[in-house]
Structures are given as structure tokens and as C-alpha cells.
Amino acid sequence: MTDFLFDPPEPVALSLAGGSARIPVRRIFCVGRNYAAHAAEMGAEVDREAPFYFTKSAPHLRAGGGTVAYPPGTDDYHHEMELAVVLGAHAYRVTPADAMDVVLGAACALDMTRRDRQAEAKEKRRPWDVGKDVEGSAILGEVTRGFVPEGQCIRLSVNGEIRQDARLSEMVHSVPEIIADLSRLYHLAPGDVILTGTPAGVGAVQPGDVLDGSIEGLTPLHVTIGSKT
């Protein structure tokens, strides 16, 4: 048996709707600018040739239903409501036609962002890590099996006021296209999570704000923003 110098981290896992089994999380991939209206509100254009990606560390994932701290190092923390898909099989160089065969399920998700830090990184042409890969910044609800993304409504409200309201059919790159493209860049595996982009209407949150996200056919996501750390 290996002797570790200190205790290894606890496994990161998601809940599966309708069951007690837990889904171990391996990696978190995120798609940028996958809704044209959101790209426009950020002063950017979408790349219709292929998706582009950034990542979040698996230990930064939090389950919905509780309180998530407002992180240090920012005064402009933003919500981004997204569809997350969770893989349940290996995928390497799959076609879009076969891509959904490797999906275990889907969930409501929030990609929380230090917007001021992201803007600073863009201005200096640096990576987005400090703006995006933030402790507690990947918030996911229960995973539902058998979900097929089509034209379902995706919506987020803050303190009861709707801020994001769109359709999954507005994605520039569909879920099968994203999985197929990623599978040409990585050997995808069970437990990989993909956040598929956010529609327009992103905005800042403050400590005490209550966020409610929903996608038709999935378990709604509820989270409260806690005190600044």
C-alpha cells in the first residue's frame, strides 16, 4: 500500500437523479461563445468553424442546493447558466452521429466567472484561468439520464428576476458536434463533464443573491451566493 505524505483529496462526484449512485468527475471542459447573442454582449464574435474551450478543475465543482461562497480576488462575479453533459463511456475520434451514445446524462449548471479578471486577461492576451478556474465556480445539479438536447428552454433568475432566457437550439455548435470535436483533441472518458456555453443575459451577483436555473426536462438548480471569503 502506498504511503502518502498527506491525505489525497476526496473524490469529486455528482448525484444521479432517481438513484443513490454517484458519478465520479474526471475533468470539466467548457465551451466559450457558443451562443451568438452572448458573444455579442461580450463584444466578441463566434467562431462558426469550430468550438473553443477552457477548463475548470474538478475540485472546484459544487453541488447545487446549498450556499457557494463569493470568491476572493474579484468585485465583479458573474453567473452563466449552461447545459452540462456528463460522459459515461470512452470517446476518441467519434462522429457527431455517434456522439450521443457516450453521454450518460445531463444537468443544469452554472459557470461562475470573475469577469474583471477575465477582462484583464483578455486585454493582456493571457489565459483565462484566474477568471474562470475559480474555487466553487462549477455548480451542477442532479444528472438526468436520457436527456436529448433539442429546443428546450434554458433560464436563470436572480432573486426571482429572470436574467437569462433562451433555447438550447440557439447553440452555435450542437452537443454532438462539441463531443465529436473534443474527441479529436482528447481521449474522453467516463466522468468527463462538458459545459456547453451560456446564452445572453449574464450579469453580476452579490452575497445573499439566490440563483434559480432551469432547463426543461432536467432537475432545477438552486444556489445562494454566500459571504465574500
TrEMBL record:
- Say which enzyme class the record assigns: hydrolase
Q: Does the keyword Metal-binding apply?
A: yes
**Which Pfam families does UniProt cross-reference here?**
FAA_hydrolase
Gene3D superfamilies cross-referenced by the UniProt entry: Fumarylacetoacetase-like, C-terminal domain
Q: Which residues form the Fumarylacetoacetase-like C-terminal domain?
A: 28-225
Q: Does the keyword Hydrolase apply?
A: yes
InterPro entries per UniProt: Fumarylacetoacetase-like_C (IPR011234), Fumarylacetoacetase_C_sf (IPR036663)
Q: Where are the transmembrane segments?
A: none
* SUPFAM superfamilies on file: FAH (SSF56529)
**Documented EC number(s):** 3.7.1.20
Which is an annotated GO molecular function term of this record? fumarylpyruvate hydrolase activity
Instruction: List keywords of the entry alphabetically.
Output: Hydrolase, Metal-binding
Protein's name in the database: NagK protein
User: Which gene does this sequence derive from?
Assistant: nagK
